[in-house]
Amino acid sequence: MTNNNRTLRRSAAMVVAAAAGVIGLGMAAAPAVAHTPTWSVTCDEVDIKLTNYGRNTKNTVTVTVDGKDLLPTETFENDFARKLELPEHEKEVAVRLVVVAQDGDQYSRDETKTAPVCEEESPTPTPSPSEPSPTPSTASPTPTPSQTPSDSPSSPAATPSPAPSTEAPDLAETGSSSSTPLIAGAAAVVIVAGGGIVWASRKRRSAQS
Known about the structure:
By secondary structure, the chain is α+β, with helices and mostly antiparallel strands. The protein is built from 2 helices and 7 strands. It has a 4-stranded antiparallel sheet, with no helix packed on it. Strands 1-2-5 form a 3-stranded antiparallel sheet. Strand 3 (59-65) and strand 4 (68-76) form a beta hairpin.
């Protein structure tokens, strides 16, 4: 009975020790997982994100470019996020990030990255003004050579028109002619003469009978 009690006590002690060891490892590893420093460098910008560095702590961050301060030492708690514009440069420059964690040097960072030179964008060519269209030529078109007299059909000979007659045309006599009174007078004479002849003839016949 005594041996069984001892065995149980030893087993319980081993379990407790194992559990304490696991908890200790978890607590020791937690800060390492919590500290998350990320940063990137382009030709004209530095992007910094530092998260989970602990509340009520005095952590610091510093950024330099070729030894000159781009971000003087600044204190932060738990989180820090910032975008820094790089100065213009004609050659590659070294960007250095220094993070000092208050809870231990193992969580601090001292890293350097290179910022390349930004490529200049080629300017968009300005379209040149369109040239004016040429003014149409005012020169008269070249005349087409006319046909020679030998090639053109001969025109018929013109018929000479008759010369105008100088004699007046014969016109029919109308009542308005100037000879009308003469004709009327001659007719009256003829009638009178005829009547006289008839009268004379009757008188002779009566005398003979």
